[in-house]
Amino acid sequence: MYFASDNAGPAHPAVLEALGRANEGYVSGYGADPLTAQVVETIRQVFEAPDAAVYLVGTGTAANALALSVLGQPWQTVFCAEAAHVDEDECGAPEFFTGGAKLTLVDAPRGKIRSEALAAALEKAGKRGVHGVQPGPLTLTQATESGTVYTLAELAELTAMARARGLPVHLDGARFANALEHLGCTPAEMTWKAGIHAVSFGGTKNGLLGVEAVIFFDPAHAWEFELRRKRGAHLFSKHRYLAAQMQAYLEDDLWRDLARRANASARDLADRLHQVPGVEICFPVQTNTVFARWPRAWHRHLLNAGAHYYLWDGTLDGGPEDAPLMARLVCDWSLPPEAVATFVSQFPA
Amino acid sequence: MYFASDNAGPAHPAVLEALGRANEGYVSGYGADPLTAQVVETIRQVFEAPDAAVYLVGTGTAANALALSVLGQPWQTVFCAEAAHVDEDECGAPEFFTGGAKLTLVDAPRGKIRSEALAAALEKAGKRGVHGVQPGPLTLTQATESGTVYTLAELAELTAMARARGLPVHLDGARFANALEHLGCTPAEMTWKAGIHAVSFGGTKNGLLGVEAVIFFDPAHAWEFELRRKRGAHLFSKHRYLAAQMQAYLEDDLWRDLARRANASARDLADRLHQVPGVEICFPVQTNTVFARWPRAWHRHLLNAGAHYYLWDGTLDGGPEDAPLMARLVCDWSLPPEAVATFVSQFPA
Amino acid sequence: MYFASDNAGPAHPAVLEALGRANEGYVSGYGADPLTAQVVETIRQVFEAPDAAVYLVGTGTAANALALSVLGQPWQTVFCAEAAHVDEDECGAPEFFTGGAKLTLVDAPRGKIRSEALAAALEKAGKRGVHGVQPGPLTLTQATESGTVYTLAELAELTAMARARGLPVHLDGARFANALEHLGCTPAEMTWKAGIHAVSFGGTKNGLLGVEAVIFFDPAHAWEFELRRKRGAHLFSKHRYLAAQMQAYLEDDLWRDLARRANASARDLADRLHQVPGVEICFPVQTNTVFARWPRAWHRHLLNAGAHYYLWDGTLDGGPEDAPLMARLVCDWSLPPEAVATFVSQFPA
Amino acid sequence: MYFASDNAGPAHPAVLEALGRANEGYVSGYGADPLTAQVVETIRQVFEAPDAAVYLVGTGTAANALALSVLGQPWQTVFCAEAAHVDEDECGAPEFFTGGAKLTLVDAPRGKIRSEALAAALEKAGKRGVHGVQPGPLTLTQATESGTVYTLAELAELTAMARARGLPVHLDGARFANALEHLGCTPAEMTWKAGIHAVSFGGTKNGLLGVEAVIFFDPAHAWEFELRRKRGAHLFSKHRYLAAQMQAYLEDDLWRDLARRANASARDLADRLHQVPGVEICFPVQTNTVFARWPRAWHRHLLNAGAHYYLWDGTLDGGPEDAPLMARLVCDWSLPPEAVATFVSQFPA
Question: Of the candidates C212, C236, C254, which is a domain's last residue?
């Protein structure tokens, strides 16, 4: 009954086996090893992007902040969704890596930036000449923090608005695979074909120990990225261990299988919760996260019974027992099939 | 015949086994897991420092740069040895993480800061009042970039000079274990008992996949470090995999065994090279690195024969064949015992 | 008919005379001159703050950004009003000087932060632990960007909310004198007695060529400020010319006279505009700025007739001729008495 | 007898008169005034550079640090002379404005970078690939901190070395006029014709209250500079007062007259000191600064008698009375002709 986060579960066994296989003999450090060369090539193939610059880092925050620092300038503002990870959950890493850029929060009901709100934010950003910060990159999160997914048309519309002003677009793909499974499209369709310039391609939340890739479809900034990564202390000396994880992830579609499993668990969870009178599903369940609401007293009961999840808009002790509170329930790839049923069976309803 | 770096060899099998054991079930992320609590306690015991603040990061550069950012201020200068890793090999990470502090390079023959040179640098640093940067942390590297080791008395003398001016002292211990084995002392003796405030305690070069600990003996800056680590994108979500590595490293003195092996290989290598007429050992061989000099033509022969090592003060094509060039030869824990003999047997002499 | 900005008019003649008097003989640079000592003492007296640390800089943005960099930390967020100068008109200077802090925009109708909105922002800021930026300084603007003035009770309420969480409070006093004249209180009452820790005390918009003072009521951070000012390139070598301006400003209550004049002009302007059918005064006119709305066609007429002011919520060519647009009309100390009447007489109404 | 600094004397009366003339009526702020347009054009003519981007700031440190931030990158190192102002006297402003670039100190006897030393520094800088900071701008100081002047041939040699590696060259011209008078060449010859990309063109040390110009001969980075200047809080709202000073400076060759006077005073001072047995002139006296050495006891006598100057390599109380100490004696434009003779007449010799 562990729904707290998709970083709480184990790595997939195939990933550890790959680490074991990689742990033989001597290879050059800092990414100059054959496994790294292989995984770079694999990612280029997966994204149908033979010229892409591809890099590995250890955390999603590093992927996002380094990518944005290359795409933007210190005197610009980054457009992101309200409640985006880059704004709320990275302790100012984008500001740190960019040298003090701003973040402009754009209205994003259910996690998805409204195009009208982006238009207004873009319009406002250029108004004050040298006195104001300048418009900078747009960053979109796919799947969003609310577990929802932009359609390809929605992505294309938003990226076109940025591109019309000469602004680059970054995709925070911490849950890239989950979104891709939902859309049933190709990685290229969800990225460069939809107008994305650079991607944080997540692995950690979907079965790795801790590896994310940064992909620039235009390699012009490759060397700058390498210098910023090193300077940011994110260039691993024993780089083969990052490469081995990512290679295992991509082989035999493991990454898509794991995302499919996680999404299916969330679907099952939502369906079962939907049957419980008094439970409200808050957002469309499109990936591996369910946001749902039920009375405080039931939360108390469930959490005492050993369930793990976060309350998203209140606390156990913050009000009346019958007041509804929203829970975030995240299903990771490893969730045992019976966990969902067991969890829902504990509802007092 | 792989002497290029101690980041080129494999991780110790016990470390991978520990990863496998850690890969079970659900635990909280970001360091709030039992394994992390355990390894923090273990490090406190190893260092006889029950109040120490202890953190794990993925790279040595992160450990150094984050530690210095906490100990210093943007308007200060960090005193370090000429050729220190923080100056030459981190692409400006200390400058980046501190917000633009300077590094003052102090004369350091054979890698060890001369106390007279440090005295002069400290003396000069305070002279220009508000116009100049202010004196900041001292950072010492143990073992040094030249493979040498400060004696405890030398450490105490240098740290006393800094402390007399109210300046904190950091120890870059990327090869901490190798130095400790050479001195035959305790971790406490080589750190806080010798006047050190904070340590980058290396694991990556000595058998891990990629984990370093940062230890502050005074926990006053613990929360600041946590925020800086997160903001620097160095807080791993699946933190247990860092903890598992470090715990395996410290159990049953594995870390000291591995360092002893590596040091012994270097000792053996130096002894054998010493027998070769025309080879000069450049620095005292105290840890796992040998600096030695021989004619360019021999380097050409050896490197063509499959040896891997770095030329330290020239290139194969930069001058006459009989000109002596210095090689850096690093022995890692995994070096097969016969590799040294095989390598030396290839000398044309 | 120049209402574009209070930085468009001349400096007061007494200020230029003071420059002339200061331009004699040799004095030490960088603030170690007698005039600087004198003006520091004068400001301490004016603010009834004998221990205050007082510094001069050349721009209001420097005053704000340097003050905030001393009061806050890179991993914090600064709470400010929506549309505050620090957010909209300083091209990210606060972000730059703080090393990448965030700004949290708080709802502020008519320029004044709503206490409920501040409470909510403070409440939210601490919620995400190490993952989110931490609560930092509160900065209030007095007079506000809308020309309104916080009452002493309002100031006290807002500063108490910050202080209850251990957060320092900065006052952006670019139009300090104008607000003071409106309230009719003492500088101490409007600052430290109301809970303010540090002030940007403006002179440039009220008759100087370009000098602002930064005042810390607690001198603990004095040395840090001096280093940050130098490092920010804001320590003037020929410092006496800043001191002379500020001293002339404070002598014989010149600063209050000038603010009184400017406020009176705005009052007169508002009264006359109020008589014009079809003109709406948007905000209470409490200082030297009037925000008023009338049809686009009239703006076209007035601007063509030689009036200077900014349109605040639209452009001449952005819509129907009868659509009302808001103008910002700023009266500086030097505005000729007849200018207001002349301007209003040009209205086509 | 005031030889402490060329920032200790008064501004030239013509400069104050220009301020008075500028202090009429209303003009747009932030540099959009006619006087600023005029001075930009004047500087372009003076430098025979019709396309140059020209900006005014209030301090020499701002000019240097902003120029370097535009020419370089955070991950680069700036090559400068040992004892350069940018390294010793700006409290890390270049590091702050560049976002943490390094400064590489190049051997510079008598203030002038040795070309062999620059060659070695350039050679070394590129060696470590992604691990080391990258080569960045070269900055030369003309006249140097030692009062000496690079010949045009020397400038051309050094700039050619940087340009051969694609590196831009900045000239710190805090005492530009003094050097120009010594060389008797044109501003163009001493800058872009000698390979310089950007200049900090000083006025403050030569008769202004506080204005320096930054000149980029290639305007490609103009907009970036404007944003950095604003963000650095160095864009003055009442910009006409900076423009008026600089315009007065350039009219009727005032700037060259003042430099000629200052240089002549220093020449006279050196000639007279040369007559005093026991006095040693340390460096060639080419501009307005004399470095000379005489016994500590004489310094005590002179300083007690009311002379003002800095001891450069020791203190009054740091050793035996007969030990020679070096003085720095700076002559500003306003030095009364008799001051030199009076000063030298006080020598006890």
Answer: C254
Overall size of chain B counted in residues: 349
How many whole angstroms separate alpha carbon D337 and alpha carbon A152? 80
ipTM: 0.97
Task: Note whether D298 and D248 are same-domain residues.
Answer: no
- CA distance to partner chain C, nearest, from residue A318 (Å): 13
Supply the CATH number for residue C308's domain. Answer: 3.90.1150.10
Structure tokens at B111: 């890698």
Rounded distance between C-alpha atoms, residue B218 and residue B230, angstroms: 20
Cross-chain residue pair C74–A91, CB shorter than 8 Å: no
Chain C residue with minimum CA distance to B222: C130
Tens of pLDDT, residue by residue over D212-252, are 999 999 999 899 999 999 999 999 999 999 999 999 999 99
> D101: Cβ–Cβ under 8 A, 6 or more apart, which residues?
B92, B95, D68, D72, D73, D74, D75, D76, D77, D78, D94, D95, D133, D136
Query: Is residue C173 domain-resident?
Result: yes
Percentages helix, strand, coil for chain A, rounded to the nearest 5? 45, 15, 35
- Among the candidates A218, A252, A286, a domain finishes at A252
What separation in angstroms does the CA of B327 have from each of B118, B278, B281, B297, B312? 28, 14, 10, 13, 6
A242-297 pLDDT per residue, tens: 999 999 999 999 999 999 999 999 999 999 999 999 999 999 999 999 999 999 99
* C-alpha distance from residue A85 to each of B24, C128, D23 (Å): 27, 11, 52
Of A89, A100, A130, the CB nearest to C128: A89
Which residues, other chains included, contact C76 with Cβ-Cβ below 8 Å and sequence gap of 6+?
C98, C101, C102, C133, C134, C135, C136, C137
Q: Which residues of chain D have pLDDT under 70?
A: 349
Q: Which domain range does residue A294 map to?
A: 255-345
Please report the pLDDT score of residue C349 as a whole number.
62
Q: Which of D212, D121, D147, D217 is nearest to D174 (CA)?
A: D212
Cis peptide bond upstream of A143, omega within 30: yes
Token pair recorded at residue C222: 């004095």
> Among B171, B65, B188, which residue's Cα sits nearest to residue B113?
B171
The pairing of strands D169-173 and D198-202 is: parallel
Nearest residue in chain C measured CA to CA from A131: C89
Closest chain C residue to the Cα of A135, Cα to Cα: C91
CA dihedral angle for residue D145, residue D146, residue D148, residue D153, rounded to 10 degrees: -60
Whole-angstrom distance, CA of residue A98 vs CA of residue A76: 9
DSSP letter, residue C73: -
Is C8 among the domain residues?
A: no
Q: Are residues B226 and B334 in the same domain?
A: no
Q: Where are the beta strands (DSSP E) in D160-319?
A: 169-173, 198-202, 212-216, 280-281, 289-295, 310-311
Residues C136, C81, single domain; the answer is yes
CA–CA min distance D36, chain B (Å): 30
- Note whether D132 contacts A: Cβ–Cβ < 8 A: no
pLDDT tens across the length of chain B (349 residues): 799 999 999 999 999 999 999 999 999 999 999 999 999 999 999 999 999 999 999 999 999 999 999 999 999 999 999 999 999 999 999 999 999 999 999 999 999 999 999 999 999 998 899 999 999 999 999 999 999 999 999 999 999 999 999 999 999 999 999 999 999 999 999 999 999 999 999 999 999 999 999 999 999 999 999 999 999 999 999 999 999 999 999 999 999 999 999 999 999 999 999 999 999 999 999 999 999 999 999 999 999 999 999 999 999 998 999 999 999 999 999 999 899 999 999 998 6
**CATH number of the domain that D122 lies in?**
3.40.640.10
**Nearest CA among A161, A175, A153, A166 for reference residue A63:** A175
SS3 D6: coil
| Number of domains chain A contains | 2
